[in-house]
Amino acid sequence: MELKQLYREIVNEHNLHPVHKKTIENPDIVLRGVNPSCGDDITLSLKLDGDVITDGGYEGSGCAISQASVDMMVDQIIGKKKDEAIKLAGTFMGMIKGEITDEESIEALDEAAALQDVAHMPARVKCAVLGWKTMQQMLEGEGE
Ligand code: ZN
Questions:
Q1: How far apart are the C-alpha atoms of 16 and 18, rounded to whole Å?
Q2: How many CB atoms lie within 10 A of CB 86?
Q3: d(CA 123, CA 141)
Q4: How many domains is the chain partitioned into structurally?
Q5: DSSP state at residue 29
Q6: 5-41: string of b/e by CB count within 10 Å (b at 16+)?
Q7: pLDDT one-digit tens code per residue, 45-96
Q8: Distance from the alpha carbon of residue 142 to the mean position of ligand 1, in angstroms
Q9: Domain holding 69: CATH number?
Q10: How far, in Å, is the centroid of ligand 1 from the Cα of 94?
Q11: Residue 51 C-alpha to ligand 1 middle, in angstroms?
Q12: What is the whole-number distance in angstroms between the Cα of residue 52 and the centre of ligand 1?
């Protein structure tokens, strides 16, 4: 399948059938992330057990890229340790900015790697990184 087509299908799928667009019970950390240039507005909730992210969800609204990206992000980080999730966020943002291009790093992003094309759409970069940036801020601020 051509990459552009794959990218569109993944974005569509996450918009039509988001897996993690829901409230979770007793979240340990909650943070709102806003991208005023597009109107994307999400509130991310995470549940932690020690160093491990055990559940996550988000609410809000925004463009297809922002919503698909946050849905994929939550899917990726559940079951991961905080430092692994922070590292993934760094990889994702590096990929979107076009700074990380080696396949091995990008493969670690699984489905979210489909958003690599956003690197060629400067206006959408903030949309794509919103969820990841919010998650990184939450985890880095936690327990300090
Ligand atoms: Zn947007």
A1: 6
A2: 18
A3: 28
A4: 1
A5: E
A6: eebeebbeebbeebebbeebeebebebebebeebebb
A7: 999 999 999 999 999 999 999 999 999 999 999 999 999 999 999 999 999 9
A8: 27
A9: 3.90.1010.10
A10: 18
A11: 31
A12: 29
Beta sheet of 52-61, edge-to-edge order? 29-35, 40-49, 52-61
Tell me how far the alpha carbon of residue 39 lies from the centroid of ligand 1, in angstroms: 6
Q: Tokens in use for 68? A: 């698909």
pLDDT digits 0-9 by tens, 15-50:
999 999 999 999 999 999 999 999 999 999 999 999
**Ligand 1: centre distance to CA 9 (Å):** 17
Query: % helix / strand / coil in the chain, to the nearest 5?
Result: 55, 20, 25
User: Residue 9 sits in which domain range?
Assistant: 3-141
Cα of 118 vs centre of ligand 1, distance in Å, is 11
69 Cα–ligand 1 center, Å:
10
